[in-house]
Fold these 3 entries.
Entry 1:
Amino acid sequence: MFFGLLATALVAAGFAVRALAGVVQRRPEWVVVLVCVALAGALAHGRRRRRLSAARLARGATEVLEEATATALGALDVPPPAPSAGPAVTEPMPPAGEPRSLDHEALTPEEFEEAIAALCVRDGCSEVEVVGGAGDLGADVVALSPEGRRLVIQCKRYSEDNKVGSQDLQRFGGTCFTVHDADVALVVTTGDFTAPAEEYAEQCGIVCVNGAALLAWSDGLALVPWAAGAGEVGA
């Protein structure tokens, strides 16, 4: 009977150790806890019954070990408390109907040319190229409109108080059609045009896009400038 009880205790201890192996693998700190619990349980049984047999002592230690294992497994199954969610932070939205415009005046001249080219791509143009630079002869952006017309655009990133003058238009007018073969020539500025510049543009068939018209074009609130014909767009 002694050996039978001892064998039963050893088998139970084996199952407990196998379960503990999984616990220890996931939570190494439980090793110390379980050992302490097992020793405390064994000592408690020893105090209650000083004359315990070896078989009973082994069985008692096994029961304590199984109980500790069940406690550890239960602790692992309990999900950690979710962190308290703070107040949600949301970005303020602009009022309905308010356009979200790119600040073209904050761009460098090169970035401004890229922005105009991007508007052309957005509105269905193909073969869009930024060609501005030394020796560009007035052309900063060239493209084909959705209708197949060749667009030649000069970009003037000027401040609000710096207007595009007639000399600027004359230089561009001397090359946009004869050199660049433009079907539609456009001058786009973040500022405005002088009256003589507007007169020259109207005579030569150059489309002038001032800052207000650029803003409307960028926000999709106006026709594309190459569809407006000669003269100042948005005047």
Entry 2:
Amino acid sequence: MNLEKRYSIGEISHITGVSKDTLRYYDRIGVFKPEYVDPDNQYRYYTYSQFWYLDIITCCRRLQIPLERVKSVLDLHDNEKIVEMLKEQRQEAQRQSEYYARVVDDIDWYTEQNKRLREMGKDKEIRVKHLQQRRVIYGRNKEDEAAYHIKLQEACRDEISHMESIKRNYGYVLNGSKIRENVFHQMGEYIDIRVDEYRFASKENILTIPEGEYACFTTEVRGNFADFGILVNWLDKHGYSPDFVIADEAGLQLFAYNQYFYPCEIKVLLSS
């Protein structure tokens, strides 16, 4: 075999399966440069010994090692040091594996949210449920009532920025005096991300939803209106007043659904 034979970029690509564009890119960034450049026509040529380097680069890329670190691997002639570098890459691969596992879990969760959305709204009965206390981040409407979501975004900004998951649900504190008029009047909006402790949200933006017995039913909200008739009749019949009313959205939806109708579970704390 003629070890001095020179190979064009097209031949290298054909033999190894590495595209010519990739080889040109490796040349441009200095990872894999041709050993010989013809001074007359500037054609680039590789030699037989360089095939080993390309094998090393290909292995490194399969391990997702960044190209800037591939240069370090090519410069090393100590396998122990290469093993240490690969252990660092293993840690990064583990981190990415955990990240994509969370992505899969979030997508499964969102799929279940959609299933819940399809099923809700079919049962119009009032159900009394004992609900545990929970703490949510709340955006109060003190100025422009139409901007309740902006208030919430301001309140939960720092907490959300540190979240790795999309798991969350939204809800509203309603003006109970308006439900007899079938008016869905949001006094504020909250987000429930079900964490043990809020680390970044301001204490003044934390709302505690009390434990207790709640009259619950599902209705569809259209703009600022919803049919509360069944609920109002039930409350009157049993002698309760709607002093604390919340509305939990049935599930997370990744589109601007507030322009359409959407199901909410209305919950009234039962107090005489």
Entry 3:
Amino acid sequence: MAGSNPRSGGPDGGDDDGDGIRTFPFPVDRSVLGVGMQIAPMGPDRTWRADAPLDRVHRIDFHIVMLFDAGPVRHMIDFTEHEAAAGDLLWIRPGQVHRFSRGSEYRGTVLAMQPGFLPRATVEATGLYRYDRQPLLHPDPAQLAALRAALDQLRREYEDTATLPLSLHTAVLRHSLTAFLLRLAHLAASSAEADRERSGTAFTRFRDAVEHGFATNHSVSAYADALGYSRRTLVRAVRAATGETPKGFIDKRVVLEAKRLLAHTDLPIGRVGAAVGFPDAANFSKFFHQHTDTTPAAFRAELR
């Protein structure tokens, strides 16, 4: 996987999970000495998987971090389009639905990590499975220089197969990878904290409440009452933070979850609706069409 123009593919071509979206496994056979990570440049002369166009929606069962040397690059993750510039990083976690852009030229460095390669303490310290964090990161010049230095060191260790026996080579890789990920995790946490500060306390509490309750609660008044705010206060806070209404914010989160379920699972459409708070399938279809200009069935069919 690493060292790729993410347009085409490999010999196994990935697995179909029964929901029509292919999941590509970590290609251990392409790693140097078979270790659980890969790092290499991205560029037009590279390939990933020869048998499947990755500009179709797909998943991976490993982590990818891309550091871009050029831009803009457009990349879809969980049905949100992200635009990365030179010096930005994109972190895609296992299981996320994503799609490479046919019109973008991916240049820079790509790192892949197999789940299980790092010990549990490192996984927890680096927030490897913090799906609530934004995938697109914008380091400042000092942060970028430090991340590049850590990534360059990791790549040198990865490519140096002559100085150490395999067990020590793998141990050094884990330490170097951990150093890079700790810097990356700090950047991700700092970005999240900055978002919270910009958003304000009222919006932050509302956002967290929606994240926990969107599957059963779509009422702005109910959220306002539970949080101890007036409806007017909540409207001002959400509009200042996002430019939209509280109802629009709730609906957007419901639509995202519905899209994930339609893409990830083969649940009947009625059960998808019930899972996001619509016991009546017709009401769910009407809601989904109103917010996406397509029906749930058509959306699912487009991905398959």
